[in-house]
Design a protein that fits this description.
The chain is mainly alpha-helical. The protein is built from 2 helices and no strands. It starts with a helix and ends with a helix.
Length: 51
């Protein structure tokens, strides 16, 4: 589960800052926020040991 959280977090970072670092990186818009919400929910569930 920690691997999934890490991958989602890295994708969120790429979506949030990728356009500033690489000009050819696509803009993701609201997908950035959806990914971070999913990552936070997974992290909370993992910390509560529900999953």
């Amino acid at each position: 589960m920690w691997t999934v959280i890490a991958i989602i977090f890295v994708l969120w970072l790429l979506g949030a800052f990728g356009g500033r670092v690489f000009s050819s990186f696509p803009k993701t818009g609201n997908w950035v926020h959806i990914l971070i919400v999913i990552a936070v929910i997974l992290l909370i569930l993992k910390l509560l040991s529900v999953i």
